[in-house]
């Protein structure tokens, strides 16, 4: 059994992710474009009717780029990239359409060596996310479409799929998926909690804490590690009536929210862009310095941080190492367009 212990942290399907698989459509835009569609420079929102024309318009921009996206899918890809071998360390579930964009997502997942099992349907086309870049800000507008059609009973509950859930030791689902299938999240979260495995979640965007508070707080007792950035943390604190805007205090109060599995104390990790990352238990971690001129695109930085973190977590490393890997991955990603990465990591 000794050899098994050495191998186990890097076995296939040890990391499980479930979320909205989207094709990112990135373009550099100007302030007029943001104003026209009522967008904040740095935000994530769900597309409404008034944004329909935005998608047509952004595609006509001179330098538009297409990348496989979706917050959770980005994070598990980065984790796989950091780990390198074996392939298929990470499993991913989500819903796509039977169309060209869906084929691109399948191809990109395979190239990243992620074991993606998509629920494919033809009611809705594959989801897209417009990434409107201005300087080092990114405003994301997600048209979920097919991603919103994920069905627990049609996919997650199937024996062949649930077996992959059971194989995992670490689970990660971005808060974005709360708008799609909270019942799927709860089933996975309860499985993790009942089996003393690690369930991770992300606050993902201010609108989740504001408008999806009920499903978020239903899952919270099962959350072992909660991620978020400073804006999301502030919104969450306000919605929960924490009456503080001190990020360290918010982290502590979040840590102390009710928890099912008492064997694991909740860990809360809040990133703050170029400022120190705050984590409960160990407090502040400085990020790697970067010259503003080297920042190409901050889209995907948060997802990359989580991916780096998870890559060390599945290998049972310390919180400090997890955060160091997160900072490394984010630092690599912001030098590139979209959530893309070089062939191999250079992390020691």
TrEMBL record:
Organism: Myripristis murdjan
Keyword set, alphabetical order: ATP-binding, Kinase, Magnesium, Nucleotide-binding, Nucleus, Purine salvage, Transferase
Enzyme class, first EC level, given as a word: transferase
Family that this chain belongs to: Belongs to the carbohydrate kinase PfkB family.
Record bears the keyword rRNA-binding: no
Annotated localization: Nucleus
The gene coding this protein: ADK
Protein name from the UniProt record: Adenosine kinase
GO cellular component: cytosol; nucleus
Entry note: cofactor: Binds 3 Mg(2+) ions per subunit.
Primary location recorded for the protein, binned into one broad class: nucleus
